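WARN  no MSA supplied for this record, continuing single-sequence
INFO  ligand: beta-D-glucopyranuronic acid
INFO  echoing inputs
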Amino acid sequence: MSKCLYFIFLLAILPLNLRSQDGYDLWLQYYPIEEATLRENYSTQIQGLITYGSGATLDAAVSELEKAYAGFFDASIPTAISIKENSLVLGTRDNLPAYVLPSLEGEFTKINSEGYIIKKIRIGNTPATVITAETEAGLLYGTFRFIKEMQLRNAIDKISITDSPKIQIRVLNHWDNLDRTVERGYAGFSIWDWHHLPELIKPEYIDYARANASIGINGTVLTNVNASSVVLTSAYIEKVKALADVFRSYGIKVYLTARFSSPMESGDLETADPFDPEVKQWWKDKADEIYAEIPDFGGFLVKANSEGQPGPNNYGRSHVDGANMLAEAVAPHNGIVMWRAFVYSEHDPDDRAKQAYSEFVPFDGQFHDNVLVQVKNGPIDFQPREPFHPMFGAMPDTPLMMEFQITQEYLGFSSHLVYLPKMFEEVLDEDTYVQGEGSTVAKVIDGTLSNKKLTGIAGVANIGTAKNWTGHPFGQANWYGFGRLAWDPYIDSEEIAEDWLKMTFSKDKDFVDEVSEMMLDSREAVVNYMTPLGLHHIMDTGHHYGPGPWVGNLDRPEWNPVYYHRADSLGVGFDRTTTGSNALAQYAEPLREKYNSIETTPEQYLLWFHHVPWDYEMKNGKTLWHNMAAKYQQGVEEVEDMVKTWNEMEEYVDEERFATTQMLLQIQLKEAKWWRDAVLLYFKQFSEMELPEFVPTPEHDLEYYQSLEFPYAPGISPSWH
Ligand code: BDP
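INFO  complex generated
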């Protein structure tokens, strides 16, 4: 056999999931169903597809079914013109024939406007599977769910599923600049090819929309929160419209970031004062202009008076004044404003962790109905672990939306395998106690705690032009998992990991068991090798890559790592109790009391809330210093375990993704050691205690680690220059 023929032969016998692939297809891979009985069973259940209604979203659903069917069965999906035995029936409630509805009695009461029903019913004597919903978007979600059931190889002959999203606005935030750099982006450049828009519609746009729709994401903020007013010019609105036209079929609305000074920059006004009638009019006109092109435009996301961005404070006005002015401009078009609470000032001597709360909580109840205040999960900034942001629960009369960061700015960029849904889940499950026990963050976000009409959740995207979208093959799991938790903030991150692995790599039980465990453990590993025991913000400056606890020379005090760890000869950690900044006062009881004492503070938050003596005896009877060293060492060992686990997975994974992940894990291991050695050597100067013998002697001295520079580390956008 010639070499070439041999290769073709090899390809033909290799199960599809083992064929080399670049990861572009994400979790939407529709491999042939090889299990004979299942194949037979599924095809019996899908005798003829019949659709009721018309529209681009229904077309998108049908096209996805066609794609999936072709992948599963290597054949075209059979169609029907009337319902017959085992038809697959697709239509919204309004479009289904009246004689189908009695069999769905009661089901529609279980879903909301974006929910779906998938049910095997009998219409007269004819069995059929119906996918239905109140809206076309619901229908599309139901279709993806139906396909997923087959991807997971679940039985569909008695299928009966109803599901609805628990949060309304489920958006990605792209920190993408118009020059296609991505702030804190580690997966290449922006996928928005502004220069060629509106004419060139890339297949990636459609696949991006499919991927999002498959997990229920219904909005995308196209531009960086450090915004350019250029996107609000007419030429760019045309480009945005082209993207909106693609995404609309997939139930996805577009949003833009609004630079507060735009009336002066893309308009010719002399002020951006929100009380100025001309400014108000400018924004109204701008909104009208956008909505004339994009009737379902979602609205604006605004970063104002934060890290140098302009805002209402420049004119002596408040965040409420600014947000409400924009809200009035988009309200006639049913648009919303997502106003970020990520504010802190170098002129405020108070603990940075307290500032957003201090600034926003007094405004509770004053924002217009179409404003959501967007709050990061923790009070500082997307650290590997933070306690939940005390604003959650503290503004019962204001809709608060969650902002998670999917891109791993502080968690190893796209070089480290860190499964974020585990972290998202931890935050969502935290009890704020604001209305007694059980007042979880999830209940604040989904609006059930204070009966909110408008609810939302945002994830800062980790998507770029990398062939596999996210750089690290496992970065896809974080995009996927964000979507799943946005849809339902109560699902288990383990279930999400398993679903993702099965759809992305292999359904083999041994593989799924081992690798899902590795993913779930990866979150604690990164905390251990970067910032254990409540340490935070000790990364290097600017690019935020690698350790930098020694940095203390930046102009803004609260940008210096030394501001956060406060290490001295007595101890380490930030005293946020009543004897310190009293940030604790922003939490409800019993948290306040519990965290006020070192003894009752969970060790994972110890140095977040306390300045602790180096020789303080911890629960295990060993000193703080010993425990800190042990955590760093444990983090490294956990990555060693990840390496071992992955090395055993070769038989289940295609060569390309196997090798890429393997090499990236080596980087992660090297960097975990780097973090351990650099941070411990640095703190050792203060503790004046020896490293416990279980920590290997660092490869270099502290000066070496301090001398490292990374001038071209990715993710720094021009907005920081
Ligand atoms: C920080 C990032 C910075 C963002 C900022 C924000 O370092 O690039 O602009 O958050 O969220 O984490 O506005």
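The domain at 169-503 is CATH 3.20.20.80 (TIM Barrel).
INFO  checksum written, moving to next record
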